[in-house]
Structures are given as structure tokens and as C-alpha cells.
Protein 1
Amino acid sequence: MRTGAVSWDVDARHSLFHGRRKGRPLRQGQQALIENRLPDLLMPPPPETVGTVDLSGVFDPPVRAVWLEIGFGGGEHLAWQAEHNPDVGIIGCEPFVNGVASLLRHIAHGGLRNVRIHPDDARPLIEALPSGGLERVFLLHPDPWPKRRHHGRRLVQRGWLDRMWEVLVPGGLLRLATDDVGYLRWMLARLTAHPGFRWTGTQLTDLTDRRADWPETRYETKARRQGRSPAYLEFRRH
Ligand SMILES: C[S@@+](CC[C@H](N)C(=O)[O-])C[C@H]1O[C@@H](n2cnc3c(N)ncnc32)[C@H](O)[C@@H]1O
């Protein structure tokens, strides 16, 4: 299935991420969460060269399935899913340290035990996941990189979808959201052309209406306030 797999040598890891890693300085409480809580919740780092992350011992107590959220932002959606699906382990990837601190606060408030964090670019981790290791993947409001010369930075690419096909179990779900019309067209074109994914919807409102088990993210709230309407995409891996 794979056509455009990226080779994850160490240099590539550091050059591929183009977003922000830091925002305003962390407050004392946030810094304390990063120092005291994060170490216990870290995902094992992806192998530097070719290799596979063993998911079997990552969650304690063991979970029935593993989900992944890429670019969780402030972590509201991830924390909601973890709270409502205690039998599932959720791995969150986010290189923006202020977002990681925000998720740690949600985890502490909710007493959540089923979350692990990869505080970095998701792609090296995804490359190292075992085939069929995930039941769901969430990519909500990824950076749209609207300029044509930056389209190569978009996470959704044919090679990325091929990799999603590999790491998802048969019947697994890929959920995406965007409020950027250009990126929506881009996503739909690649997803509908992919032989390994099928849209779960049947009518237009399945694209425009958020499902009950799909809480609003911080970015989405802001987009709505500014008059932009998000689209919700759910595709099943078959
Ligand atoms: C527009 S924000 C959306 C955040 C969140 N999903 C929401 O809806 O509120 C995009 C997020 O993706 C993260 N991101 C960008 N590239 C990433 C990558 N390669 N791996 C993991 N996260 C990434 C950014 O740091 C940022 O927090």
C-alpha cells in the first residue's frame, strides 16, 4: 500500500517540523506539570533507525485498544475521549510545550490513567508504530499551510494515508477536521482516491455536523467565533 513513505533519519526528524514548539513562558504550575507529571506519561521514544514501538506494555492497566491524536493542541478533545473511553489507551502527539502543559492539567483534573504523551513531531512515532496497532486516529484542524509552495508540509499526503492504512486495524477509523476550504478539498481528494479508506457518511450533514462523541476543540471554538465553519471527516479503513 505504501507509496510515499518518508525515511526517518535523525536529520529528517529535525527538519520536517515547521510549527512552533514554544509560546508564552510557562507559568510556575505549568512548569511543575512538565517536570513532575510528564516523565511518567511519556511514550517510549521512537527508535532512531528502523524499528517498532511495542504498544503492549505502554498502558497500565492494559487497554482493549489504542487511539492516537496528532496535534492535540490544548488537549480538550483528547482528555474528553480518554474520560469517556476508559478501556482505551490514547496516545497524544504535540510538539507545542504549552499545549502539553494544558493536556497535563486536564489529565490531573480528570484523574486520567489512560493517556500517554509524545511531546514532539508525530511522524517519527507513526513510522515506528506496529501494523494494525491503532483503532482510531484523530487529526483535528491540522495546520493548513495555505500557500502552494508549502503544500508539501501538510500532514495529509498520499504516503501518510498509506501509513495510516498500515497502522490502523481493519475497520479502524480516521477522523479529520478542518475549517480551511482548500485543505478540505485536498483531504477529500486524497481520501476518496485511496483504495483503503471509505467515507462513513451518507449525507452532506455527516460532513457539516459534529457527532455527539466528537467534542469541540479549542481551535474550532476560535474558528467558529471568527465565522468559519469546520468540516468533519470520518473514514473507515478496510
Ligand atoms: C491548528 S492547531 C490545532 C490544535 C488542536 N487539534 C485543536 O483543534 O484545537 C495544529 C496543531 O498541530 C500541531 N502539529 C503540527 N505539526 C505537527 C506534527 N508534525 N506532529 C504533531 N503535532 C503537530 C501544532 O503544534 C498545533 O498544536
Protein 2
Amino acid sequence: MTDYTNTSLELPYFETTKFPKKEIKNEPDGSWYKVETMYGRITTEKPTACPHCNEAHSVEINQHLFATLKHLYLGNVLLCIHIEYLQYWCTQCSRTCIQEIPFKQKEHFITKAYYNQIVGLLGKSKASIAGIAASLKTSWKIVKNIDKKQLKEKYPDLKPTHYSPYIAVDEFSLHKGHRYATVVIDWQTGEILFLEEGNREEQLHHFFDHVGRDWMKHVKAISMDMNAQYNKAIKTRYPHIKIIYDGFHIIRNFNDRIITELRRLEQNRLKEQEDEIRQSIKKTRKVCTPLQVGSEKKKELLQQLHEDYQALNLIRNDYTKLKHSRFHLLSSREGLRKKDEVAREHNRELNEKYEKKGLSLPPGERKWSIFNEKKLDTVLTSNEHLNIAFFLGDQLKGALQTRNIEDLKSGMDQWLALSKKYEVKIPMLKSFNKMLTTRMDGILSRAVYPISNGPLEGVNHMIKTTRRAAYGYRDQEYFFLKIWDNSRIYIKSRRIA
Ligand SMILES: [Zn+2]
């Protein structure tokens, strides 16, 4: 091969020594591609001085080495370069060094041209690591390492590049609910500002240290979940920042602590009753069986059995209803009513399209339930405590809806007064009411700074899909860099209304 072709192939100081070898490589999915390997040696000059001890004219050839570098993937031909190069040895310091290979990419057995191909594809943000690796016939690891190195250069310290007056903090699960991480975002842009394993107060202290005092002084308000401990960190170090409790979180908190808990208790109670009746039935049958047919005692016991079975049926019925009521109890009445309306419309369409014409429904099509609100009512009427709790939840949603601070304040006061009345009947209301009272400041601030943790839902979703796109990201540092970068691809511009 001439020097001219070598230059156009971006292979300076490469001298071919043999004819190229052509092979067909079969992929597991049945597809194939060609591999063309060029053989040659490196012609760069011997170094004039030892790179280790700087002694002039001290290096000598120690041995010949060989390596194959991936060079280019064009069409469906993978071009590889098999190189012969030299290892030198210093007569002064006895250390070795290798011949300079101008077209080899440092740290990888690929050429600079191939490296640039990978970088080019990485620049197209939609491509996944696995996708790029497959399309260039290389390993996932090489692409990942290159991507990671580039991201590290792009974000050397993972620090915010501008002030953020409104921020939001939340926790998300790293591994299916076992380990948690804390994430802080710029509420307006959606950019991730901080990310650390753990979901305690100290994570927020680390965040403060990371961004520094000056940056924190520019923060006006922070939105967070009521459950977390983050508020303590803010209060002790930056009391000027308004803490905002997200309305969505307040409702979720109520649902978790009151509705779900009541449902669980009620289910347990029904289960215990069922067990009791089953025991009683067992006993009665034992006594009843040997008795003479038609005797008074037998008649009496049979009657008792009949009643027990009836009671058992009722309890089983209540239990099943309760078991399937989770969705209904956690929805709003309004939402369920709408759902029923949509379902009615859907069923009407199916009826007109198929049933009226005597056709059966196509596969995958079915009628939707129009009894969501009715199901809710059945559960509520059979359980007084759940009925109260559901009513309180609905009222709480209503009270939180306003953006007028006076209305919000009086609404919350009224709600608390009402809720306190039921503390005897529903004891878990006590701790919830207490929490609302101590955090009232942050609830009322919602009216002044209408920021919420809503944008974090999107961030959490992005984190999940990012993880899925790369088989779980076992490399934590890379995973963090990746989501840091992803949150900056499409910058949002939310405004404070
Ligand atoms: Zn030397």
C-alpha cells in the first residue's frame, strides 16, 4: 500500500507487510459482517532519549510486539489494523518503553479514527451505549469508558453553573426500594444540582458544602416532601429559605398514614373474626356429628352452624371488597365519577360498533367497569372509620387547592379543627394532625411560592429510563454523570405564576 492511501486512511507511519485478510463474522442474531485486517508495521523513529531517565541514545530494541486495532466500520465492513511495533529497553535505567503509534487511541486497542466514530455517535443523544456498540461492532465497555471520560471532561466538578432561586429536593430508590439517594434540582430548569446516596439530613448538608454559601444565599424557596428530614438542615443553616410542602405529598402522606393504615387494620380485624367463626364451626360440628338425627340438641346445633356460615359469608364478602378497594380509596370521588363517565362512553361506542350489529367484540376489546364510584360507596358504608377518613381526605384536598394565603390558612385551620374531633375514633389522626401543625408554615408558603415537587417526578422517570438503557449502571459514578448530563439536554423554563 502506498503512503498516499495510508494517509487517506488516517494511518501515518504504517507500512503494510502482507496482503489483507478477509473474513465473515456471524452475529448471534443471524446477521453477518465482513472483517478486513491489514497487516503492517510501525515506522516511527527510535526515541533519541529515554523517556524515563532522559539519557540520550540509551534505548535499544528489546522485542517485537503485535496488536490488532479496530479502525473503521464502513458499510458492513469492519476494518482492522494488525500492527507490529517495538518495545525499547534503556541501557541506563533498565526500564522499557514502546514505540510511538501515532494513530492509536490512548488506553484502548482502537485507532483515533475509530474513537472519533464512537464519539460522533455518542454526540447523538438518543443512541444508547449498547446500540452504539452493536452498530460499530465493538464492546459495550469501550463505548461506556469513552462516554464516561467525555462526561468527566464536560462536568469536571458537577457544580451548578448558575444561581437557582427555586429548588426542589426528594429521595428516589436506587435499587428497588432498598437503597435511596437524594436528588436536588433547579425547579425552573429541571437541571440536577446534586445527587448522593442516602436520604437523610446529612445529604442536604453535603449539598450545601458542595455548592457553597454564596450559591445558597441566592436560593429563595425549596420544595420538599413532609416525610423527610431535610427541613432540619435548611432551618439550621439557611433560615432565610422558605420551605414549601408539596400539596401532592401532603395528600399522599394522609393516604399512607390514615387510609392505607385503616384499611390494613380493618382487613386484620376481619381476618381475626373469620378465624374465630371457623374455630366455632369446627367445634360445633365435632359435637353435632355423633348426635342422633332429629334430636333437639342436633336441631339446635345445626341452626347455629347455619348462622355461623352466614356470618362467615358476610365477612368474606367484606374482606374481598376491602381487598379490592385500594384504588378507589386512594382516588378522589370526582376522579372516580369521571372514570365511570369515560367508561360509559367507551361501552356505548362498543355497543354501537359491534353488539348492535350482532358482532362479537374483537380480541383485546372489553367493556370497562362503570361502578367505580359505587364500589367506593359500598366500602365506605360498610366501614365507619374509613368513611370518616375518606371524607377528611377529600376535605383536605379541597382546602389545599386555593392559592390565596388567607383562604389557605382558614381552610387548613378548619380542617385541623374537624380532624381533631375524630382523633378518638381514629387514633392515627393524632400524629398526622401534629405534623401538619408543626409544618403549617411550609404548607401556607405554597400560596406565596407555588412550586412543587412535580418536576422531580419527571426527573425520577428520567433516572429510571437512563438506568434501563444501560443495564442498571453498575458503575455508580458513570450513572450519576449520565443523569447529570441527561437533565441538561432539554432545559425547561418553568415560571413562578
Ligand atoms: Zn533510561
